[in-house]
Write the structure tokens for this entry.
Amino acid sequence: LANEAERIEQIALENLRPHANQPRTVFEDATLRELAQSIRQYGILQPLVVVRNSDDTFTIIAGERRWRAARQAKLTQVPVIIRTHNDHEQLAVSLIENIQRVDLSPLETAVSIEHLHTQHNVPYSELAQRLGKAEATVSNIVRLLGLPPAARQALANKKITEGHARQILALAANAEQQKKLLDLILANGWTVRQAEQYVVAVKKQKADTHTAKQQTTGETPETKRLTKRFNTKVQIKRTAKGG
């Protein structure tokens, strides 16, 4: 049997409020409709985790997606586990469980980890252990919050990958070059490897855009000679291991 802190209760949907630091910021309509249909058929199988507010409403710690789908399914109440605001450890554990369970974007994960670290005083080392990740991996995820606004937006919109974002972060000391790199990635569809070559070129004091771009191209004096000899276009295709 669940203990008192884990007792499941039924709470009216109208009394539930989303958490201000909910990890997920994007809820796709199609997947919500699918979940709503499942809830109509089978109900909510996993209770939401909430804390009671002073006005007798409840803030959702884990389960906002289920709450949204339940509203679509026209439910009037949902099963919840009520925890207290004072129990920071349980609250932190609930948020960690939510990060593990939900398929979050890199930025959503970064925001959640930083919230747990700053608001709940959970060390990065402990978060890494609980999330089953290396501490360096957690640190790298949090570093994404240091991206320029335009790059953060591009990452959120999946126009660049986390690998691209890390290369942009590598130029943190030069905001102008960060913008140039982002523009080049978006305009040319650069791979992470090409972005990395640009960063290397910039850091070797080849800081002008034309010279750095040359490092990412597939054309060299050798390929030009081969092109002329065989009368066909010859280029080097860059890969993660070389080309």
